[in-house]
Write a structure and sequence with these properties.
The protein is built from 14 helices and 16 strands. By secondary structure, it is of the alpha/beta class. The protein is globular.
């Protein structure tokens, strides 16, 4: 089969590799129908995630069809159309019992495209399939469903839920890339007073308005002052950091009010300065996290009901065979205006019986 293989920082290729096979009785093999590229994949290619070994197939999000299952798999069968979660769950360890699947100690967590071969391929082996794939509603298109593998659960859980967004809050989202936009959309579920989006790309700020931001600010034009002006000098109740660079993190700590919450979502590849000389007396809560995907079933139901703006996030589509071109477009998002790039994926046809 063909797959997108990481060969070291700055080195990758769409090339021939061996087909995956069942290794454990809890495994499933999925024929990939649609995948997407994550900002984390770009971090890997830049060398920011050094534990990824050369020779690894990248990718941790996919929609596809079950083609083979191990003898212990009970929840799916060959022919089922499924979402492959970015997080693998053994279901037995302490953390999985607490629904903290991202911290799984039983061979799960974020392993696809990280510690084992991932989804940017024609086929993928999924460990612990009973808890790590989700049967898909027939009404949900591949290109919409694949965004529920990582982007929306990450924004919702690590940003909105960790930040404890409440009705009447002022929420600032720093970074209007795919995760930041999903944070804007899912924060609206909690009826905040206002949402302010911050970015340096005008097209992304316009997208943030479409996703429900009440105000937007260019990062170079004093966004902390805008937040102060809109909150009588207090600052935001919740600030969601969705970039993953030191400058954006420090901006977030300047925008939060006393007693407020900063929810770190971005993947950081460099050390960040924590200005405790300013923060120690402000009662600020800082959270970080790897997504657990415990919200995926609920988000799938919302997406199937048309309650999430998944289609608006997809700006570019490619066949799987054009993976390298898709990476180039996604990696130059400032120039290409790419939000989310989807490879493969056709509108799932649904037969409707005559009344």
């Amino acid at each position: 089969m063909k797959a997108f293989v990481f060969h070291g920082p700055g080195q990758s290729a769409w090339e021939e590799v061996s087909d995956p096979a069942i290794k454990e009785p809890t495994d499933a093999v999925v024929r990939v129908a649609a995948v997407t590229i994550c900002g984390t994949d770009l971090h890997i290619l830049r060398g920011d995630v050094p534990e990824v070994p050369p020779g690894t197939v990248l990718g941790h999000e996919a929609v596809g069809e079950i083609v083979e299952i191990g003898s212990d798999v009970r929840s799916v069968r060959p022919g089922d159309r499924v979402l492959v979660s970015c997080i693998i769950s053994c279901g037995r360890c302490r953390f999985c019992r607490e629904q903290r699947y991202g911290q799984c100690r039983g061979g799960g967590g974020w392993i696809l495209g990280h510690l084992i071969d991932g989804t940017q391929a024609e086929y993928v082996r999924v460990p612990h399939a009973d808890l790590s794939v989700h049967p898909l509603p027939g009404t949900l298109a591949d290109r919409d469903a694949v965004l529920l593998a990582d982007i929306f659960p990450t924004a919702y859980e690590v940003g909105v839920l960790n930040g404890r967004v409440r009705p009447g809050d002022t929420v600032a989202v720093v970074g209007a890339g795919p995760v930041g936009l999903a944070a804007v959309a899912t924060a609206r579920l909690f009826s905040p007073e206002r949402i302010i989006a911050v970015d340096l790309v005008p097209a992304r700020l316009e997208a943030a308005r479409r996703f429900g931001a009440d105000a937007v600010a260019d990062v170079h034009e004093a966004p902390a002052q805008l937040v102060a002006d809109l909150t009588d000098g207090l600052g935001a109740d919740v600030v969601i950091e969705a970039v993953g660079v030191p400058e954006s993190f420090e901006l977030c700590t300047r925008m939060v009010r006393p007693g407020g919450r900063v929810a770190g979502v971005g993947v950081h590849g460099r050390p960040v300065t924590l200005h405790l000389e300013d923060l120690w007396s402000k009662d600020v809560t800082l959270t970080t996290g790897l997504v657990d995907t415990h919200s995926t079933p609920a988000l799938l139901r919302m997406a199937a009901a048309g309650r999430l703006p998944t289609a608006q996030l997809v700006t570019h589509t490619f066949p799987l065979s054009r993976m390298e071109e898709a990476y180039d477009v996604f990696g130059r998002a400032g120039e290409s205006a790419a939000l989310k790039v989807v490879l493969g994926g056709k509108q799932h046809e649904v037969a409707v019986a005559a009344a």
